[in-house]
Amino acid sequence: MARVLVFFGEGFEEIEALTVVDLVRRAGIDISMVSIDGSKKVTGSHGISVDMDESIYDISFDEAQMIVLPGGMPGTRNLEANDDLMRNVDDFCSSGKYVAAICAAPTILGHRGLLVNKKACCYPGMEEQLQGATVTKDKVTVADKIITSRGLGTAIPFALKIVEVLTDKDTADKLSSAIVFRV
Q: Is 103 labeled as catalytic in the residue annotation?
């Protein structure tokens, strides 16, 4: 079974992170909320604190099939400043594992040169930071094993795409119908 790690830095965008956690769990996929600094609780950019499942210091990246990077400020900058996480993002991309990023977080992938000759999307106004990418305005863009999305308003399609790539389209469609969402 797939294992997904969602990374939380102080100032994360709550809806983007928690929508993924909620829908992936509804699909029966193992997903953990992981603090990047060892905190048991991380506060989002709108003052909502969330209890973490694990700390980056206690997880095994080898057991995971996907890393998810939520956006938000300063959450995105905090994720990018974590060397251990960035090393693993690079490793996941080079080894063909999934990396998913939404809103401002796809800029991390651009800064690291991971989007060269790939399609990608991000929060409007940050496109120039997707270095080397062909920028789309799609709600969700999939290029090889990199999934990007534009922001809070695209969190449900982003989460459903994660479910789809880790299971199948039928599972994602059934979940979409169950939550009364039309893709």
A: yes
